[in-house]
Amino acid sequence: MLNKLPIAFLTGLGALSAVLMLVFKDTILGFVTNVQVAALDLVRVGDWITIPSANVDGTVMDVSINTVKIRNFDKTISMIPTYTLTTHSVQNWRGMVETGGRRIKRSINIDIDTIKFCDQELLERLGKETLLADFIKAKANEKLTNISLFRAYIENYLRNHPKIHLGLTF
């Protein structure tokens, strides 16, 4: 071996390293990811996570060096490579769960042709509504639309609902 050129030894060592990296790629990436997950507290067993690119939305059951096992809310089990936690967008809902709150987002489709300015008769009738009275009085000098009244009604309804935690919403 001493009679060989060092370049031959280094070439062989490089080729061997490339083969080992290819064979142990997932294990090495998983190990590095596990260190990051532990150090940065990214994911814990029991966390609710969402990974859109992997079609995952559920609770973490197990984190090992190579895979993360997740029970989706439809009771299916997803196994993803551990390094997915650092290479893809992951949403961890732990903060929401710990606060005891829940965010609910809803969309309402509104036909633009139904949006109209309110006439005086409608404003007088809706002014008797407890949740709209203050809003209509405050905006008495403005031209109001039915959609602005609807928005004010929904916002006041949510502000006054006993099961809505105001510290987490407004």
TrEMBL record:
A GO molecular function held by the record: mechanosensitive monoatomic ion channel activity
Domain Mechanosensitive ion channel MscS: from-to ranges: 26-94
Domain of life per record: Bacteria
Entry's transmembrane regions: none
Pfam families listed in its UniProt record: MS_channel_2nd
Biological processes annotated in GO: cellular response to osmotic stress
InterPro entries: LSM_dom_sf, MscS_beta-dom_sf, MscS_channel_2nd, YbdG
Lyase as UniProt keyword: no
Subcellular compartments: Membrane
Keywords, ordered alphabetically: Membrane, Transmembrane, Transmembrane helix
GO CC terms: plasma membrane
UniProt-recorded name of the protein: Mechanosensitive ion channel MscS domain-containing protein
Organism: Francisella tularensis subsp. holarctica
